[in-house]
Design brief:
With 442 residues, the protein is α/β, with parallel strands linked by helices. It is 31% helix and 25% strand. It is globular, with a radius of gyration of 22 Å.
Length: 442
């Protein structure tokens, strides 16, 4: 049986970030295996067209309270420093803002007062300020509509597919033995005397620590091991519309206020990192019974995760008994109705760019990923805090999607490296990591 110090399953930005971190800053980890069932890294939710390409800092994401925002900020500073240093051609540095209209204005003004000491670069803009930095947000808007925005001059749009490739490239070039198996799906994970056994392609690999970064599928393997069995998943697909013209329609990212009752992203618009002439709007959010947008073979994995069971049905019914959640779900279903759906989506897009017409946007076919929304089968609610799991009694961890997604991939890797260091007794040189990224010690 082939032995490894660490096995990582999944080569999206989450798994590849940990591979890079361990090969550079954990000298005691010498033998690493990375298993990916696609032909290359970052081809599922990390793919450039399958996510919102945002590097979240917590300042304009109005669903984050201050404590959560500061955690997000820490992870974003890590990743921002990395992409500035190692991936300058795979990111855009652009301004960003969140706009509030009508009765939202007071809420955003209060947020600015609470957050400005922690985010000294943010500004509260009035009509004139918004028109100066992002004129298309004001063009065609009712001049009597109350509006303010929380604006930051520096935001990142990141090509997370290119980022995953860069993590792998750097991990391979550091002299540590890292083997990468592409086009390889794991069959199961089994406990062993000194860690776990991962079985793939009829080969058994022994490991002292296993990390499942296989997105939604990670939860299926966790259930087999007895972990998180009271958690199921509602796979939610995010789609985007786009508008193309020379120079794009927006200079930076423009978000709308988040409904605090909804765990799904509010509609926003931003320049595409891969084409500055293209402006993307979205995401929509609709349930789909698969775990990967382009793979109906994952339908079987969805059926096995616990959602389509009596307990799952009761939990979903309780969640949808909330009028806000039910209304949101029904409205997003309208988006898929031919002709009518485009008009429905345009209504929301006009919150960002009021002057757009029905012929100005088209569906970006094939774009958008699927994020599994954890469901608490016992209490019948959307489960918070279950994006990542670390076993209390074994060298095991898994990630469905580290909140807030790819933005926290390096922060997630640091937290996992601390845990691996503690469990396996190998040092993690976090101070050198921060020094290499040009960041102050924590």
């Amino acid at each position: 049986m082939s032995a490894r110090d660490l096995i990582i399953v999944g080569a999206g930005v989450t798994g590849s970030a940990l591979a890079w971190l361990v090969t550079h800053y954990m000298p005691g980890i010498r033998r690493i295996l990375l298993i990916e069932r696609r032909s290359a890294p970052g081809l599922v939710n990390s793919n450039v067209t399958n996510n919102s390409q945002t590097l979240h800092r917590g300042d304009i994401e109005t669903n984050y309270p201050l404590e959560k925002a500061l955690q997000v900020k820490w992870g974003a500073e890590l990743l921002g420093a990395f992409v500035d240093q190692h991936l300058p051609d795979g990111r855009l540095v652009i301004p960003k803002q969140v706009i509030a209209v009508d009765d939202e204005v007071e809420t955003l003004e209060a947020r600015f007062r609470e957050f400005r000491q922690h985010y000294p670069d943010i500004e509260l803009l009035d009509v004139d300020g918004i028109n100066r930095v992002e004129p298309m947000v004001m063009q065609g808007r009712d001049p009597d509509q109350p509006i303010v925005s929380l604006w930051s001059p520096r935001g990142h749009a990141v090509d997370y597919h290119a980022l995953a490739e860069k993590f792998i490239e750097l991990a391979r070039g550091n002299g540590v033995e890292i083997e990468i198996l592409y086009n390889t799906a794991i069959d199961r994970v089994e406990p062993a005397r000194d860690g776990f056994v991962v079985r793939a392609n009829r080969v058994a690999y022994q490991t002292r620590f296993v990390y499942l970064a296989a997105g939604n599928s990670s939860l299926n393997f966790a259930h087999d091991l007895g972990y998180e069995r009271n958690i199921a998943l509602l796979p939610v697909a995010g789609s985007f519309y786009k508008h193309t013209r020379p120079g794009g329609v927006l200079r930076g990212k423009v978000y709308t206020m988040q409904n605090p009752k909804l765990p799904f992203a509010a509609i926003h618009g931003d320049p595409a990192v891969y084409n500055e002439d293209e402006t993307r709007f979205g995401p929509t959010a609709r349930p789909m019974p698969i775990f990967e947008r382009d793979s109906w073979r994952t339908f079987a994995e969805f059926l096995d995760v616990g959602t389509m069971t009596p307990r799952g049905g009761v939990a979903l019914a309780r969640i949808l008994s909330d009028p806000t959640m039910l209304g949101f779900g029904l409205w997003n279903m309208v988006y898929d109705v031919p002709i009518v759906g485009k008009y429905a989506f345009l209504r929301d897009v006009r919150k960002v760019v009021p002057s757009l017409g029905i012929d100005d946007i088209i569906l970006d076919k094939g774009a958008g990923g699927i994020r599994g929304q954890p469901i608490d089968l016992v209490n019948g609610v959307i489960a918070k805090g279950h994006d990542r799991f670390v076993a209390p009694d074994a060298p095991y961890a898994h990630t469905i999607a580290p909140s807030p997604g790819a933005s926290f991939c390096l922060g997630n890797a640091v937290e996992l490296a601390r845990i691996i260091s503690e469990r396996l007794g190998h040092p993690f040189d976090e101070a050198r990591l921060l020094a290499d990224l040009g960041l102050p010690a924590i």
